[in-house]
Amino acid sequence: MSTPQEHGSTTTVIQQAVTENTDKRDIAGALKRQLQQSLAFGTLVVLVVFFAIASPSFLTFSNIASVLLSTAVIGILALGTTFVIITGGIDLSIGTGMALCAVMTGVFVTNMGLPVWVGVIGGILTGVLMGLVNGVNITFLRLPPFIATLAMMMIAGGLALVISGVAPIYFSTSAPDFKKIALGVIIPGIPNAVLITALLAVIGYIVLSKTLLGRYTFAIGSNEEATRLSGVNTRRWTIFIYMFAGAFTGVAGVIIASRLDSAQPQIGTGYELQAIAAVIIGGTSLLGGRGSILGTVIGALIMSVLVNGLRIMSIQTEWQNIVIGVVVLLAVFFDSLRNRQRN
Fold first, then answer.
1. Tell me, what DSSP letter sits at residue 107?
2. How confident is the model at residue 97 (pLDDT cuts 50, 70, 90)?
3. What is the mean pLDDT of the chain?
4. Which uninterrupted H or E stretch holds 327?
């Protein structure tokens, strides 16, 4: 039987091994992230140049504003999903979850007549609650993240339809200023939604790189078992990570509802794929343990520019979906290739 001293010594050795391994991976990972981010930024520049040549209306002020507004929604979803994917998990519920958060905001503000700020908090907390359920299902029920969040995707989509009565909830009569959350302007020429996205990106960067939550996010994704043996309650921190990501889903729901001046119960379909693609394009590994907020922002811009450029060129929706699907496939393929090279 081991003594307390021996147990403490073993724990120390494990912690030192985890720390040394993490330091080595950090150096190599930093170089790879810089390369991946450079490639992603180069891709963004190429897309902008291509669409600018293909359509003179692409670089107009109104269209750039449209691209940035689209990036706001995709980007906010992607920022939260970055944390989940770094842990080696996945969240397929963020699209329909965003719609549910928008609907709940509409219910609080329009149907119940509560102040706008209460409705906004309610919408964000709806996302947090979804993250809590996802986290519990994954950690305590031992459901694979894919299955747990797929079930939540269907549940959230169904709840959004049931609660809204399969009809949009409009804010124009009960809260005419609600649209200013996304479309209002504090800095001339920059919609508030873009500023909110930038603020959330800064918060995400600080949390991921400077806090205990960020450190354990990388640790769980790199080696969950070693992290658990070092004394970290990986179940609890995984739940916190999914709740934190859920808050971003809630914010995205509020932003898209404000942008449309209505809560559309079916609006979130397909957003999860674009957000996940943005995260992967930005260099975050599907196997976990590697990722960055800056890369995710670049990836979100690439997805928004691609979708907007295809629409500007009058490409039919069916072909747009095919192109986006190919981009997702290529992103996953190159991520798999990077992982094989690393191993």
1. I
2. very high
3. 88
4. helix 317-342
Distance CA 293, CA 314 (A): 32
For every residue of 36-49, DSSP letters joined together read: HHHHHHHHHHHHHH
For residues 201 and 165, give the distance between their C-alpha atoms in angstroms, rounded to a whole number.
34
Beta carbons of 250 and 82 less than 8 angstroms apart: no
1-35 per-position pLDDT tens digit: 455 554 455 455 445 544 555 455 556 556 666 77
- Count CB-CB contacts under 10 A for residue 34: 14
Instruction: Give the per-residue pLDDT at 15.
Output: 54
DSSP, res 110: I
| Tokens (6 digits) for 4 | 């307390």
Name the pLDDT band for 110 (thresholds 50, 70, 90). very high
| Residue given tokens 């549940």 in the structure block | 155
Q: CA 47 from chain center: how many Å?
A: 22
* Chain position carrying tokens 């706008």: 116
Return the bridge partners of 185, or none.
191
- Residue 18 structure tokens: 């985890």
Cα(334)–Cα(39) distance, integer angstroms: 12
Query: At how many degrees (to 10) do helices 94-106 and 271-281 cross?
Result: 130
How far is CA 18 from each of CA 104, 210, 233, 288, rounded to the nearest angstrom? 43, 18, 15, 16
Domains, the chain, ordered by start = 4-342 (1.10.3470)
